[in-house]
Amino acid sequence: MAMRSALARVVDSTSELVSVEQTLLGPLQQERSFPIHLKDSVEFRNICSHLALQIEGQQFDRDLNAAHQCLKTIVKKLIQSLANLPSDAHMVACASLRQILQNLPDT
Predict the structure, then answer these.
(1) Domain total for the chain?
(2) Which is the most buried residue in 17, 42, 62, 86, by most CB within 10 A?
């Protein structure tokens, strides 16, 4: 049951992150450049692809934990990238990203 809850949190947080990226970060990226860490996104995609092929077990648990940690890293780096950009839109994006982090407690 705990594993399903953790998986649901990762899925929900991923969905929220995509929404924030599309609605808030996309327009901000066009307005003012800030670093996006694509390597982390590629790693996250690879972990999720591997996770999708797994059946319950120790490897699934490790992959789920890796996905969770990678997603947290992506969100934290986005917050850091936005921290130095003073505007109301940046503050809204940071607040949305912090909410995602709160929904991803340590496993």
Answers:
(1) 1
(2) 17
